[in-house]
UniProtKB/TrEMBL annotation:
This is Acetyl-coenzyme A synthetase. It catalyses: acetate + ATP + CoA = acetyl-CoA + AMP + diphosphate. Residues 119-179 form the Acetyl-coenzyme A synthetase N-terminal domain. PANTHER family: ACETYL-COENZYME A SYNTHETASE, ACETYL-COENZYME A SYNTHETASE 1. Residues 188-564 form the AMP-dependent synthetase/ligase domain. Pfam families: ACAS_N, AMP-binding, AMP-binding_C. GO terms for molecular function: acetate-CoA ligase activity; AMP binding; ATP binding. Gene3D superfamilies: 3.30.300.30, N-terminal domain of ligase-like (3.40.50.12780). Residues 626-704 form the AMP-binding enzyme C-terminal domain. Its EC number is 6.2.1.1. One of its GO terms (biological process) is acetyl-CoA biosynthetic process from acetate. Belongs to the ATP-dependent AMP-binding enzyme family.
Length: 742
């Protein structure tokens, strides 16, 4: 259905039909409800009828709720738009004229949150009574001992002392028990927990929840036998084999703290993490195939352990899984006394293992994030709050149902793989696809082959994949991972991948937050292409200026969070001072996200990129995401990444890496056209100084663009590129360097 609102009339017509619909809106009596005989248009009517609901509650709304109430009103679209344009999910393609995508009546009716009113009531309680709201949800999980009262205690203000966040302190639980044993006891023993797809087509396996528990217990027993105790660290350096989530869950079962390191990091990066967390055991495999290439992981681990030993940190055990598809054990370098084959020892252990009950505030995992310089930051997440938050965000943001088959393409070496491959899905009893390979091997249709094979219904990925010759009819919800998705990419994802049937959970969150913070809830409210929309339950986003003063209404500024949420990280391992300085001192009284954000007149949130990705051109502060979005609006531009470079006149110049749509040749005319597009959409001050043709962009496997590498290329600091081993396609960097002067 396509529609518009103007002069007090809502006019609509169904795609493919010339029969008009006319909903008269009495401007003098807007509280009068409207009705509609069409089932597919009833959701639009219901949004308008929410007007009355909002008017009733507006006067009773406190400061915490002033922006989420806007969803209860008929939205007016983002930007300089004189009338509303909208489509209904499943009935028409989204175009640049469509500012809103409404959930279909059928989808909304079956959703966990089926209306703006329901969201508002839940959100209202979550910020006015956070302890009560989250306690009710936490009670759905198993606790050996209930937590102390109150459920939450915090100091979020550095001016009042050390930053401290505690949720469910005193409660005893175990996240592995809640992922596996609890689901088995509820009747899901024979439900598939993991569908595994290997690097090479035709290589697949699966585990039921019962079989997964057996393997987790065997590894837990082995770890205990070699001296791993509660609180000890275990480094996991594995590719996306089933053994990776098995290892995570096995550590959690015995109270050990796992630190998963992406199996693409260099030996130097791995050594830094080993030196910092001092693990009792390192778990790896001998090799892995990525596409057609064999990567010798054990050699990388050996080099990292040697480097660690030079720095006084020795690891006694290196448990190695023999990945025979990539490399036989005969070809693996071996150190007797330290190296142990997984297959020779772990399967001999019992398939039952006692659970180590841990306090909700006991550490669960360390995950290291790295910048362009300095020591990696060990983000520390604890057990109880993270468990409750990751499970709840997964359920609501993806509208998860027990019949769903779920696939997230991120690696467990990133926070996405922790929260939305392993813990969040399994806490909900989901069937999860785990994929070892790359999305373009042996061809660009690999992902869609997997979607069709396993009948994936919820697909969480970076929306840059080709779509050819596959049905994808099983899909019902899409999620966007990695970079903030621009409106054009959003429409492509919606129109092509989801065939206009699937709502998109275009989420904003961070390693530090543990789970989604601002996210659409499918079925609850209309989506705007490119907007993360509204905050998740318990999250209180604010936008502040450079002095830390909250900005009201339509605005742009620094995104901060008021008050804690259960999934928040508690510290940086061994460096609480850096934790406070980085996240809590920039704007006292708030958690500073490091991101810029705009809020439109309807209260929708639009992420504008990292604040350190703001370019200061002759005094104009320009968000890189804004320039990127303008570039991608050009019909011949598939993707863009913008960085700042030194400019002798303007202070900083704008340097744009541009990937063209397939088949488009580079040309001077096209370069000028791209620059003109930015000038027209933003202004002359934002026009790129340099267009750098880019066949591809350097990205991690979770879809995050490695901007530090782009900055070095733009600045011609090629000897300072640093570690590129985490890239999904490292050869992209060489190609970008070759094209630097074209």
């Amino acid at each position: 259905m396509q529609s518009s609102v103007s002069n007090g009339k809502f006019v609509g017509s169904f795609a493919g039909s010339r029969v008009p619909l006319l909903f008269l809106i009495n401007k003098k009596k807007p509280e009068k409800r409207i009705t509609c005989t069409s089932a597919s248009a009833s959701c639009v009517c219901s949004i308008w009828n929410n007007f009355l609901y909002k008017r009733r509650i507006r006067m009773a709304t406190d400061n915490k709720l002033r922006y989420v109430t806007s969803m209860l009103e008929f939205p007016s679209g983002a930007g300089n738009i004189s009338a509303l344009n909208a489509i209904i999910l499943g009935e028409a393609l989204a175009s640049e004229e469509n500012d809103l995508v409404f959930p279909s009546d059928d989808f909304a009716r079956q959703a966990h949150v089926s209306s703006p009113q329901q969201y508002f009531e839940m959100y209202k309680r979550s910020v006015e009574d956070p302890a009560g709201f989250w306690s009710d949800i936490a009670s759905q999980f198993y606790w050996k001992k209930k937590w102390d009262q109150p459920a939450c205690s915090e100091n979020f203000d550095v001016r009042k002392g050390n930053i401290s966040i505690q949720w469910f302190k005193g409660g005893l639980t175990n996240i592995c028990y809640n992922c596996l044993d609890r689901n088995i006891e509820s009747g899901n023993a024979d439900k598939i927990a993991i569908y595994w797809e290997g690097n090479d087509p035709g290589l697949q396996d699966s585990l039921t929840y019962s079989q997964l528990l057996d393997k987790v217990c065997q590894l837990s027993n082995y770890l205990k036998d070699v001296g791993v105790k509660k609180g000890d660290a275990v480094v996991i350096y594995l590719p996306m084999l089933m053994e990776l989530p098995i290892a995570m869950l096995a550590c959690a079962r015995i109270g050990a703290v796992h630190s998963v390191v992406f199996a693409g990091y260099s030996s130097e990066s791995l050594a830094q993490r080993i030196i910092d967390c001092k693990p009792k055991v390192v778990i790896t495999c001998n090799a892995v195939k990525r596409g057609a290439k064999v990567i010798h992981l054990k050699d990388i681990v050996d080099a990292a352990l040697a480097e660690s030993a030079k720095n006084g940190i020795s690891v006694d055990v290196c448990l190695t899984y023999e990945n025979q598809i990539a490399l036989k054990r005969e070809g693996t370098k071996w150190k007797e006394g330290k190296d142990v084959w997984w297959q020779d020892f772990v399967p001999k252990y019992p398939t039952t293992c006692e659970v180590e009950w841990v306090d909700a505030e006991d550490p669960l995992f360390l995950l290291y994030t790295s910048g362009s310089t300095g020591k990696p930051k060990g983000v520390l997440h604890t057990t109880g709050g993270y468990m409750v938050y990751s499970a709840t965000t997964f359920k609501y943001a993806f509208d998860y149902k027990p019949s769903d088959v779920y696939w997230c393409t991120a690696d467990c070496g990133w926070i996405t793989g922790h929260s939305y491959v392993t813990y969040g899905p399994m806490l909900n009893g989901a069937s999860v696809v785990v994929f070892e390979g790359t999305p373009t091997y042996p061809d660009a249709g690999r992902c869609w082959d997997i979607v069709d094979k396993f009948k994936v219904t919820i697909f969480y990925t970076a929306p840059t994949l080709h779509v050819t010759r596959y049905s994808r009819k099983s899909l019902r919800v899409l999620g966007s991972v990695g970079e903030p998705i621009n409106p054009r990419a959003w429409r492509w994802f919606f129109n092509v991948v989801g065939d206009t049937r699937c709502p998109i959970s275009d989420t904003w969150w961070q390693t530090e937050t543990g789970g989604f913070m601002i996210t659409p809830l499918p079925g609850a409210w209309p989506q705007k292409p490119g907007s993360a929309t509204f905050p998740f339950f318990g999250v209180q986003p604010v936008i502040v200026d450079e002095k830390g003063v909250e900005i009201e209404g339509v605005c742009s500024g620094y995104l901060c969070i008021k008050n804690s949420w259960p999934g928040a990280f508690r510290t940086l391992y061994g460096d609480h001072e850096r934790y406070e300085t980085t996240y809590f001192k920039p704007f006292a009284g708030y958690y500073f996200t490091g991101d810029g954000c705009s809020r439109d007149k309807d209260g929708y949130h639009w992420l504008t990129g990292r604040v350190d990705d703001v370019i200061n051109v002759s005094g104009h502060r320009i968000g890189t995401a804004e320039v990127e979005s303008a570039l991608v609006s050009h019909p011949k531009c598939a993707e863009a990444a913008v960085v700042g470079v030194e400019h002798e006149v303007k202070g900083q110049g704008i340097y744009a890496f541009v990937t063209l749509v397939e088949g488009e040749p580079y040309s001077e005319e096209l370069r000028k056209s791209l620059v003109l597009t930015v000038r027209n959409q933003i202004g002359a001050f934002a026009a790129p100084d340099k267009i750098h043709w880019a066949p591809g962009l350097p990205k991690t496997r979770s879809g995050k663009i490695m901007r530090r590498i782009l900055r070095k290329i733009a600045s011609k600091q090629l000897d300072e590129l640093g570690d590129t081993s985490t890239l999904a396609e490292p050869h992209v960097v060489e190609r970008l360097i070759e094209l630097a002067d074209r």
